[in-house]
């Protein structure tokens, strides 16, 4: 139950964030999608033992989160919730790769720990990038942008339809779940038989709903083709922002900014 | 089960993306061609249904742990493979964007693992031949259970292959396989049983729904030949995509090559490019040379990294550490500044 409620909360919360009016929100969705893609590609293309050179990317993300008004606490919670798979796979690295490649004072650090940290950092960066994209853009705009960028229209329509009815069906599932919980004296666990009946019932209702929606669409003149409203406008400012972000990202990928900064700092000190 | 961006190399992720995007385009075309337009809203709500159903947990008999529905097979049975594939892809996209399950790059892998295997392998090659045109409860049970198991096994195999090929994780192929396949055998069995139960429930309550689905599914008589041709085409596309990535992301591929060559002795012809590229990488990467751990198969790389191997160049790593910490501090400061600003507002 907690799961279904938190899913509901996540969807509506990210939706609320996406209605913001900050500088980032006002950018064209296409450039945000492309920048996010470039960001992810840059991050994952780093060598597996890289840590420091990835940190500037975090800086980039935090700047955007700040400008876009995305609360850091929320993002951190999501990261913690989503991390088990990456951590579970990554945690084997320190066990399997014990070659010492770094000495911190007297402490020797094995390659495995470095690559594990690198995996965790990659995970944080890529997941945050995606959350920031959706929280500053909104799902509908992301779909429109993807359609403009060449995604098949019917898939765009499918995504929009799905998103529209997720809220309805989660609420319906939640009601059924609650009804069962009330009638079973709060018995927490559900056996498979009850589950299949509940889900089967939900499925039947869903199919009926699909038919009703189809009839409603026919009433409104649906002829088999879907028309999506286009409101995207690509301005010079968007182009400029995209170029700046692109140059920044590629620059951060090519040059180890953290290292350069460190060298500069040490030179000033000495 | 969801792949994460963090474990993927750009070459593997990009290839899977290309393969998945191609399949989506192909399915979109198919669905548009022989669609009775009732399917458009139905696909949408069924996707949302899968979403809601996945949130409801049940107790797995005899284990005490809890599981939830995957739903790929149910969609394939109700919608036919093309529409089902689009629906699964859309569900995974929303999950990636909103729940951080997987990631942007990993989306290609995830759709491939959880969509292509159930829709284009398990459904037409296992479920359909077993269940046939006139389903009986027995046939339905065997078909759905087997298809569920095999679909998930293939999916797990996909996850393992993609992770190992990417080379970010150190897990060796055999150990990873030995862990993933049995777990997913169990998960697949449960998934198959639940699929069977839900489909039989629908069949008992409203048999016309399944009949409608069977009648209108365009892929009802998918031949083995077509599947093979499609798989062949996918392989060619994949190969093409891989070589494209080789030219546009030299260092990403380069280090994955280095990784494989360390293990599978893929040497001589690459040495020239390799040397040049490792030079570039040495200049650009923090902890240069660490990509090449076992240098015995790569003379070119060995020359470069051997001198610095036992004692890491202190200067570089210190400045890396200092710079890294500075960046972190800067990040925190920026974060606080923004917070302050929003509080002032």
Could you explain the architecture of this structure?
Chain A is mostly helical. Chain A has two domains: 1-150 and 235-270, no CATH class; 152-234, no CATH class. Chain A has helices spanning 2-17, 23-26, 29-44, 55-68, 72-82, 84-90, 92-96, 111-137, 139-148, 153-183, 192-219, 236-254, 257-269, and strands at residues 100-104, 107-110. Chain A has a two-stranded antiparallel sheet. In chain A, strand 1 (100-104) and strand 2 (107-110) form a beta hairpin. The radius of gyration of chain A is 24 Å and the shape is globular. The model of chain A has no long low-confidence stretch (mean pLDDT 86). Chain B starts with 9 loop residues before the first helix and ends with a helix. At the A-B interface, helix 1, helix 3, helix 4, helix 5 and helix 6 of A face helix 1, helix 2, strand 1, helix 4 and helix 7 of B.
Quick recap of the structure?
With 270 residues, chain A is mainly α. Chain A has helices at 2-17, 23-26, 29-44, 55-68, 72-82, 84-90, 92-96, 111-137, 139-148, 153-183, 192-219, 236-254, 257-269, and strands at 100-104, 107-110.
Q: pLDDT under 50 segments of chain B (min length 5)?
A: 217-224, 239-312
Number of helices of chain B: 13
Can you tell me the CATH architecture of the largest domain in chain B? Answer: Orthogonal Bundle
Strand content of chain A: under 5%
Termini Cα gap of chain B: 43 Å
Largest interface (CB within 8 Å) is between: A-B, 129 and 110 residues
In terms of quaternary structure, the protein is heterodimer
- List the domain count of chain B as a whole number: 2
Q: Portion of residues in helices of chain B?
A: over 70%
